[in-house]
Amino acid sequence: REPSAAWLCPRHPDAVRHEAQAIAAALRTHPSLAGVYTDFIRFDSDHACVCDRCLAELAERAGVASVTPADIVDAGARRTPLWSLWTAGRSAAICSAVDAMRDAIEEVRADAWFGACVLPFSAADYSFNTQSGQDFRAMARVGLDEIAVMGYWDDWWKSPEWLDACIESAAELVEDRGGDHSGTIPHTSSVFQPGRGSRQPVR
User: 174, 136 in Cβ contact below 8 A?
Assistant: First the structure.
C-alpha cells in the first residue's frame, strides 16, 4: 500500500484551500503575530502522490493517455525523462500551494511574514531524490520571505558535512538576500531570506 495514502495531496484544491484558510484564520485571530511558518508543505515519499489528479497531471505533461504508479517507480529507477517530468510537476504543485497561501496571507495583512521549513536534501539532492517536491530555487520565487533549512542529517544516515554542503547549496539556489544562517528556528540549521520582491508566476 502506498505509504502516503493518508497524506493530503498538495495538488488538490480543497487541501490547498484548507491550508490557506487556516493560515489566514490564525492571522485574524491573533493580530499580534508577526507572521507564520509552514511545515509539511511537501509530498510524503518519492512516489507520492498517485491520486487520479496527480497521475492525470503527469500524463498531460508527458503527452500520453495515462500513467500508472508502476510507470513512476520504473522511471525513478532508470531516471528516464518521465522522472524529470514527475519531479518538475511535484515542484510546481508545492510552489502553487505556497503561492495560494501567500495570497491568503496578503488578504488579511499584507505586511505579515511568511516562511517555510524545508527538508535539507532539497538543496543537495533534489535532482536525485524527489521525496519532498520542495525545490529551493523555485520556492524562493513564490512569495516566501524566509526558507528555514531543517537540521536533519543523522535520520537519513548522512554526515554533518553533508548538511553543511546542503546549506551552501541552498544559499546559491535561493540567491539569499540577508538570511542570518544561524538556525534561529528550533530544529533548523540555517535560515535564508529570498525576499518577497523575487516572487514570480508558478510554471
Answer: yes
pLDDT surpasses 70 at 166: yes
Q: What is the pLDDT of residue 150?
A: 80
Asked whether 117 and 146 are in contact (CB, 8 A), the reply is no
Of residues 156 and 160, more confidence is placed in 160
- Report whether 177 contacts 195 (CB < 8 A): yes
Q: What share of the chain is helix, strand, coil (3-state, %, to 5)?
A: 45, 10, 45
CA-based torsion, 64, 70, 73, 76: positive or negative: negative
115: helix, strand or coil: strand
